[in-house]
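Q: Convert this sequence to structure tokens.
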Amino acid sequence: MQQQISVITLGIADLARSRRFYGDGFGWSPVFENEEIIFYQMNGLMLGTFLQASLEADMNRRGLVRPGSFALAHNVESAGAVDAAIDRLVAAGGALLRNPDAPPPGGYRGYVADPDDHAWEIAWNPAWSIDGEGRVAFGL
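A:
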């Protein structure tokens, strides 16, 4: 089976609040939206923000909980870009989880939660390259 992820879907409580965070904070534009879900085209995958009750109905599960034991990550081109991105995300309704700092392996990162408490790591890693399409590659 091909090693890939096609779609990541996050359960959310309020579409407008989520749209503000992802639109104003990250600067992303939806490629599709209706009264239940918004899709954002990423670099090779889709991110969906789906009303939690609708997501539960779609997967035939009840009681999905937040926050989960995972973090999504958005890598940027410099340490300064980490600070700027975190500032924009907090201004767009996110909650600061961890101030940016330098972890022991190197680089620079901080954490923000979206309005539905999904954790996002905003990171610069000098050992990872980012191409013009925004694809991150392990190693130089």
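The chain has a mean pLDDT of 95.
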